What we know:
Elements: E1 6-11, H1 18-30, E2 39-44, H2 50-56, E3 61-65, H3 82-88, E4 92-95, H4 98-103, H5 108-120, E5 124-129, H6 133-137, H7 141-153, E6 162-166, H8 180-197, H9 200-205, E7 208-211, H10 219-223, E8 230-233, H11 242-247
Parallel strand pairs: 1-2, 1-8, 2-3, 3-4, 4-5, 5-6, 6-7, 7-8
Helix pairs in contact: 5-7, 7-8
Amino acid sequence: FMSRKFFVGGNWKCNGTTEEVKKIVSTLNEAEVPSHDVVEVVVSPPFVFLTLVKSLLRSDFHVAAQNCWVRKGGAFTGEVSAEMLVNLGIPWVIIGHSERRALLNESNEFVGDKVAYALSQGLKVIACIGETLEQRESGSTMSVVAAQTKAIADKITNWDNVVLAYEPVWAIGTGKVATPAQAQEVHCELRKWLSENVGADVAASTRIIYGGSVNGANCQELAGQPDVDGFLVGGASLKPEFVDIIKSAT
Length: 250
Ligand code: PEP
């Protein structure tokens, strides 16, 4: 059994002013949380605030970008490359968030390519997958998340620097959190998929985190599920209750 350190990510999405960002960081810096041996904490501000947050944030927490370009940088106006993140000392990147899949038409294959390229440049990746309400209601949850995971697995060989974020689309930003049983069922199936299609060691060691309306009140019960290895938090990561979510690691 390889132990999976609890992982809590905060996805700030397209939010914040300089003043708001400084306030969130100071709240985090003052918080008493379990040690880095117990929980890994990563916050993901918009690109323009990455260096500010990195410079102010306590050294036991880390930063993630919310996206990066699929290949080497160059003539891609408006994009930010993996090389640039590495150059700035940003260790993590979120890839394949459902908002980008839905609003910017990022396909499974494109997401797989992005994960592979980011890893090749030395970034660590929070790779997001998840089904829509329609897909869940039609009984295709597992086939959807398996296809999303396969598109990543097809492009990478080393999972050491990957955290898989299961985020049902119907639960993101809706206040409709998955029940602990619903989350556990999919996480368990995903681990089984990894075991059968990638390898038993990868299945045992890869963190599978849950995202979708996690807050200070519902995190504890979700965290108690055996295959829930942490959270990716949107709305609540902008609020002081993010500290309570970090504390659910213990
Ligand atoms: C997210 O965007 O990754 C997310 C889980 O959002 P929220 O917590 O607001 O549902």
